[in-house]
Design a protein that fits this description.
homodimer; Aspartate Aminotransferase, domain 1; 2 domains; PyrdxlP-dep_Trfase (chains A, B); aminotransferase (chains A, B); Aminotrans_V_dom (chains A, B)
Chain lengths: ~375, ~375
Amino acid sequence: MAKKMRLFIPGPTPVPPQVAEAMARPLIGHRTQEFADLYRRLEEKLRKVFGTQNEVYVLTCSGTGGMEAAVANVVNPGDRVLALVTGKFGERFAELAKIYGAAVDALEFGWGNPVDVALVEARLKSQKYKAVLATHNETSTTVVNDIRAIGELTRRYGALLLVDAVSSLGGIEIEADAWGVDILVTASQKALMVPPGLAMVSVSPRAWEAINEGRAPRYYLSLPAAKKSLTKFNTPYTPAVSLFAGLDVALDMILDEGLENVYARHRIFAQATRAAVRALGLKLLAPDACASPVVTGVWAPEGMNADDLRRLLLKEYGVLLAGGQAQLKGRIFRISHMGYIDAVDLLGALGVLEIGLQKFGYPVTLGAGVAAAQAVLAGGGQDV
Amino acid sequence: MAKKMRLFIPGPTPVPPQVAEAMARPLIGHRTQEFADLYRRLEEKLRKVFGTQNEVYVLTCSGTGGMEAAVANVVNPGDRVLALVTGKFGERFAELAKIYGAAVDALEFGWGNPVDVALVEARLKSQKYKAVLATHNETSTTVVNDIRAIGELTRRYGALLLVDAVSSLGGIEIEADAWGVDILVTASQKALMVPPGLAMVSVSPRAWEAINEGRAPRYYLSLPAAKKSLTKFNTPYTPAVSLFAGLDVALDMILDEGLENVYARHRIFAQATRAAVRALGLKLLAPDACASPVVTGVWAPEGMNADDLRRLLLKEYGVLLAGGQAQLKGRIFRISHMGYIDAVDLLGALGVLEIGLQKFGYPVTLGAGVAAAQAVLAGGGQDV
């Protein structure tokens, strides 16, 4: 049978048919009242998901473009920046700051560990930083960082906090204002259930002070330009109109379900997945205390190449799991349960994963992992 | 989360995105060369799936319309017709013949039993019939009948054989010419993976002799009109153009996979489902020897209303199972594995079924049914 493509990667995630339908509607012109109405609705809903009273700008670019917008608008050559690195995306944030001429101190916590807040405080005490760069959900290591605690420190020590929430926003709780996040960046193709192509950025008043003194070259990713256009609910350059239309519907779905319910659902799916992994005798990449609610990393069994397993699952069952990045390549696989994934999807994917493991000679009691996940789902997890 | 609607009913079945995409293309006019080309392609592919050298007419109506076309064109008032009844759809075929004035002898085999070919032969020996009406796959009882054996009898005793293959064609082997089926009827929304709205009918030269002497009123469902139009690859009345476009793609998918592979896949999925049902200690509706490869019927546990279980699965997990019809209402549920259903779908559905059974107090070892299905799927069933 022609395979059903089943995305269990941490973005792009499956697009709900309601969202696909909205994107397939006839295009509207982007310099029209219709577009302004769309952007107005959308921005109001984004504020709720961001947990902010500030404006949220929608940029037509990927999440990396949003991260660059955060850096390019704030960092001037020579600025001291502290980058908290817990994996590949933390490294990328640090690299961006270097490219814009910052003097970057990278605090590396080791792949698989979360940010150690005590170490961050020690640094902030010993040295004045203009900004701290942090990753909320580090998909490469399936670790979630304590942005709330980091935000307390950056406020106390007078640094701006720039957060990459690309793979978390809409799936994991975050409160830009309450937690003191000055620039919060996310993207469309993760927990927000929309195809790639949009980044969203919120900016605090403290961040605007820095942005207004920005000297780095910035044009397409200029936040002042985005702010100016937003006064008319417009964009400085051509927006990806159909993705705006899809995001409008996706945000309705999220807000209709209720943010607390959405977060609880992701936590329960992570618990179910982790219970399945343990029941199969496999090792989890991230410890429970900092485990991501949206993606679960698993060490391949001794002697098995995780990428061979992934290839088999894709070829035989259409199930695409994520692999390991950089030093984890071939050694881990990652199961995303982010966005539009339901119990049938998760149990079915775990079911074919068990078959795949068995085909590679790993001793599997068929159904054992599924049963552990079922028990969590049937009980509603520890949350409900 | 907004539920994913998951159809595990014996039609309409899930529509592949390739088919949905074809149906969403701009409409073509139905009196154009483009439509004639489409119908020509489609009819050629249908002959392969029907196993016939004869023409196959595509009517814009549901499967019942196709069954009526078979009866209305062949049966004259007073004709003796033998109806082989193994469930609700066998009853419908008999009822249609009565409505058209036939003297119908209904051979009832009891719900859950297949046609007993010896009894059919005894009847045909003792009485001359113009036509025999048979159901290939009786979805109401999840039983498949031996059309090949029935066809040998109807040829030997000089009766026409009219077969309802609405829920089997494209999922279960059938060979119109080799098996001596004079009129074979199917519909778009079952194993052919297209939304409802089309019936397809093949007609043998023997059947044409009867049709040409037909005296029943027939207009929209006239097979002579369909035959005449097919000489120009057109239809007598407005066809459901977008469904034709979808069927064109669906038939490509089936023929690309290969009919033998499609049939084997359905048999394996039935084996997997039946193994799961047994592992859960539940009773199957149909015995193995005549079990349908495309839909599996299961007795609800003692004291449980099958429809309560079905409502829970729909509400909580978006999984729609079929219920029992007529005397089986509330007593059975049916799991369709017809058409565009893959291993992830089936294992996921069995996983939530187990949770549902447990929620109603039935003692379930979570994962036990899934494990039995996994074992069949991992081994490729007994077929491969």
